[in-house]
Amino acid sequence: MKRFLMLILGSAIAITVAGAAMAQSSDPASGKSDAQATDKAKETTPPSATPPPDAGTTPVTPPPASATVNERAAAKSNPAIERVKERGLKVSTKERADIDKKLDEIERQIENEATSKGDAAVAGRIAGEFSMTADALTAERNQFSRGWGEILVAHTLFANAKSDVTFADILQMRNQGMGWAVIAHGLGLRLGEVVGAVKTEGRVAMGLAKGDGKPATIHASTGANAKAGAKVNAGKTSTSAGTGIGVGVDIDKAAKGTK
């Protein structure tokens, strides 16, 4: 009996030890299997997709930097130009057309002279009238991409203007589509003398007259009284300035009427 009990007890101990050994040997494998299963689950799980934008929503695209800069530049208006424009637009349509037509003809003839005799010849004649060198005047013409006629008209008006408008401002106004009559009146100059002054400088540019080293004079407009007096007693230069300069008329012949 005693031997039988010892046998049973020994068997129980053996079974317990064997069970513990089996449990220890299966734990690492189980842990490894679990880890592999977790990694596999991570690999097979698809990433969450970004929801598509609402079809009814308009995407907002930021403006390019250059556009922003241009908008800011446009927003900053030039007070000097605005004052000239405001005053100049008071000139009647008929007077604008008449003066602009005559100045355009003078410009055309100066351009023809430059084509015939060369830019250097015309530049040299014009430059001396405005205390400039031919090279400086040529560089200015290239900078603003203007013809010799426009450069001459702009300098004639600029030399007589008593305002804070710069030479570049005058050409900027031309870029904005403003005619010479509007610009001249806006600068406070007597319109009755503008064509005569430009014609005088045009004769120098074309080699028809010798320059005197100074721009032709255009007096300032002093108001309604000055305008009324200009129509009656403006003098030979101003009175004849409005006549004889039209399409196809030689500038030299027209200039003789001013003497």
TrEMBL record:
Residues 25-89 are annotated as: Disordered. Residues 25-36 have a biased composition (Polar residues). Residues 48-65 have a biased composition (Pro residues). Keywords: Coiled coil, Signal. Residues 89-116 form a coiled coil. Residues 1-23 form the signal peptide. This is Uncharacterized protein. It comes from Eiseniibacteriota bacterium.
